Amino acid sequence: METKRPTIPAAEEILGGYFPVLDHGFVSLVDYMGSDEDVERAARVSYGYGTRKVSQTRGLIRYLRRHRHTTPSEMVELKFHCAMPMFVARQWIRHRTASVNETSGRYSLMPLLFYTPGKDQFQLQSRSNNQGREGGAPPEVYKEAVERWERLRKESGDTYAWLLGEDVARELARIDLPLSMYTQWYWKMDLHNLLHFLSLRVDPRAQWEIRQYAHVIAGMVKRVAPLSYEAWVDYDLEGRVLTRVDRDALSRLVAADEAGVHARDGAVVGAQELKAAGLSAREITELAEKLRAPDHPDFELDLSTMKTAEDVAKEMYEAVPGTFE
Ligand SMILES: Cc1cc2nc3c(=O)[nH]c(=O)nc-3n(C[C@H](O)[C@H](O)[C@H](O)COP(=O)(O)OP(=O)(O)OC[C@H]3O[C@@H](n4cnc5c(N)ncnc54)[C@H](O)[C@@H]3O)c2cc1C
Questions:
Q1: Which of 253, 260, 269, 316 sits in a 20 to 30 Å window from 96, CA-based?
Q2: Residue 187 predicted with pLDDT over 70
Q3: Are the beta carbons of 194 and 221 closer than 8 angstroms?
């Protein structure tokens, strides 16, 4: 039977495909409900499917996003199947507006798959950001770290397999499996909250590992609801909030009217003035960051990496300890 539901060819092309992330993780778009037209239909509370021009839909979606009229975008939903290291899952689960069902370590046998950061990502503690990393690390430290991780993981995996072999309950056998181990979940979110999730998790201040997942999800959103994605990039991701002092300083430097934006000749607002107006040194740095030209990110999916569900399932099953099967 033919569906009456609106489908989006670019989303259908990747539906059920698995995109690898990190060394053993993945994201798959399992299902979606609605697209840009559904945001418009909800906003207009309209009957059935009309024949609006794309330019009209785009204009409305951009207006809604600029003015934070967010509920129409809650009418679109995306459902994903994801596998990620537990420490990533712990950051991800903080986004409370999702519906989540995680694989149960009480019920299922856990695949012994662990995340190992690549050499490029093995960095030292950042001096400027307590929650970050920077620079390179000596290769001998990386080599030893990998050896130590492997020893720990083997010990912990062997203990897990031994406990299961002794018929100890799975809910107890799993208690010392490490945070680097992969878990999986089904994760569903509406478009409004998903774009909020992406704003926080593609941001360079988010941990690199969760960012890799956010990049893939952003590529999926771009296929499901391209106009909403575009508006999100323009107004949220690449947009910046100006504070009262920011606006005060900028209004002394430039004037704007229907004819455009004009520089006020020779005007300067120095750091001392900004400080006197109440900005901390950090806020001055942030203002400079806000005024830098944006990056124009592109979260296009690489279709050549897409795997089938069977390929991914095989890797997971093969990593389940088998001594007690
Ligand atoms: C770079 C970074 C560093 C972080 N560091 C830490 C950390 O060190 N420790 C830590 O604990 N967390 C940390 N977090 C998690 C962060 O504080 C948020 O919990 C997480 O990003 C989810 O954001 P959210 O609450 O806006 O999203 P969601 O949970 O999806 O909620 C979306 C929005 O719904 C509303 N909402 C949802 N639930 C409630 C509620 N119960 N009450 C009121 N409003 C609600 C809020 O407006 C919220 O913004 C960090 C996040 C980032 C991005």
A1: 316
A2: yes
A3: yes
Give the model confidence (pLDDT) of 256-304 as tens digits.
Answer: 999 999 999 889 999 999 999 989 999 999 999 999 999 888 899 999 9
73: nearest Cα among 62, 87, 85:
62
3-state secondary structure (DSSP) of residue 286: helix
Question: Are 18 and 309 in contact, with CB atoms under 8 Å apart?
Answer: yes
- 268: how many CB neighbours lie within 10 A of its CB? 9
* DSSP string over 292-316: SPP--------GGG-B-HHHHHHHH
Distance, in Å, from the CA atom of 153 to the CA atom of 157, rounded to the nearest integer, reads 6
Cα separation, 279 vs 287, in Å, equals 9
**From the DSSP assignment, how many helices (H) and strands (E) are in the chain?**
13, 9
The atom number, within ligand 1, closest to the CA of 189 reads: 30
The response to whether residue 193 sits with its C-beta less than 6 Å from ligand 1 reads yes
Amino acid (one-letter) located at 146: V
Instruction: Report whether 114 contacts 149 (CB < 8 A).
Output: yes
**Which of 73, 91, 94 best tests ligand 1's pocket when mutated (most atoms within 8 Å of CB)?**
94
Residue 200 near ligand 1, beta carbon < 6 Å: yes
Cα separations (Å) of 207 from 113, 124, 130, 134, 229?
20, 14, 12, 12, 22
Cα three-residue angle 103-104-110, rounded to 5 degrees: 80
pLDDT at 66 over 50: yes
